[in-house]
Amino acid sequence: MIILRLIGESFRFASDALRQNKLRTLLSLLGITIGIFTIIFVFSAVDSLRAKLQASVDKLGSKTVFVQKWPWGGFGDYPWWKYVNRPEPSLRDYQLLKDRLEYAQGVSYEISANERTVKYRANSVEGAGIRAASQDFNKTWNLDFQEGRYFTENEGRAGSPVVLIGADIAEGLFNGATAVGKSIVVMGRKLNVIGVFKKEGEDMMGMSQDKNIVMPLNFAKGIMDVESDRYDPTITVRGYEHIALDEIESEIQGAMRSIRRIKPGAEEDFALNKSTIASQQLDSMFEKVNLAGWVIGGFSILVGGFGIANIMFVSVKERTNIIGIQKSLGAKNYFILLQFLFESIVLCLLGGLLGLFLVYLVTLLTKSGGFEIILFLSNIILGVGVSVAIGTISGFWPAYSASRLDPVEAIRS
């Protein structure tokens, strides 16, 4: 109880000192405010961007592997010359792979053509993405429908002129009316709409189905070369959830090497891409941005910390005789130390809270813009923790020097 009472008195002394020197207090905490604002703003922006991008990456599926010509990456020293002569995934690769895989719950062959125009009577939508896929497309991707259904086995095998469309396509062509049962024109051919994907909203990595249409692969064979590199052919494999991703990847790798007749020890002529590759690239990029935030904000906090240490030395000098009186009346050294240490911590904490408040105001402003920044609880805790740490470091030496003063010499000053 005595210790708690002493701590309470130390807080009262510190708060009285801060109230009596309002202008000095305000100027002292500005450096901390700017530093905390910079660090937490950068971290909040990065975390918000990371969350949106990660949500896009998660759509790929944690047990999904993409067999493609090009490995994901493309940053820095990317050896494109190693991959340019590789063959594209073929229908033969797809069929043999589908027959050989035991760990796959779905294997699909997909192609894509972007920036195409889709028409319905007098209405048209530009910039649509055309996708053609084999029957297992609904097993390798999570598809939700707001209207209609997926292809039947017979429709997929016969290459029926049917199509699934995204929510934005449906809105642009039919203006809210029922889309199922109507015919649209795609690449000069009429296709019957049998399903409309549920609206997903904007996606930072283009993974949304809102502006896509999907037709059976066997129908697409009649209007385009489905094995051409113009359409980025991809074999998508989704493994069973109870099987480890490494085992799924290893099985695909062995099967593809056998299909392509690659000799032992020879380099593979295909790439196995997965969501973890994208996640690792994002983590690497965001680590550099976070480091930049620490460097920029750290300089401001460093200056603010020196400013607070200087102010605390001034405060000790001004109250030297009071310290002498307190010690002559029996105040212990730790009581004097805590008194000034708490004053320094409160100063930094006020600056940190003001910086967090400014970040919160910025997050409110971004809600009306195109990119919303979220102030996460972890960043709030980080801001408070950094403020307390800087207050402790900046105030310790002035507080320690105050606690070591001789009471007689202090009173005489």
UniProtKB/TrEMBL annotation:
GO terms for cellular component: plasma membrane. This is FtsX-like permease family protein. Residues 295-407 form the ABC3 transporter permease C-terminal domain. InterPro entries: ABC3_permease_C, MacB_PCD, Macrolide_Exporter_MacB. It is found in: Cell membrane. Residues 25-253 form the MacB-like periplasmic core domain. The keyword Cell division does not apply. One of its GO terms (molecular function) is transmembrane transporter activity. Coiled coil: none annotated. The chain crosses the membrane at residues 26-46, 291-313, 334-361, 373-397. Pfam families: FtsX, MacB_PCD. Keywords: Cell membrane, Membrane, Transmembrane, Transmembrane helix. It is a multi-pass membrane protein. It comes from the Bacteria. Its main location: membrane. The keyword Ubl conjugation does not apply.
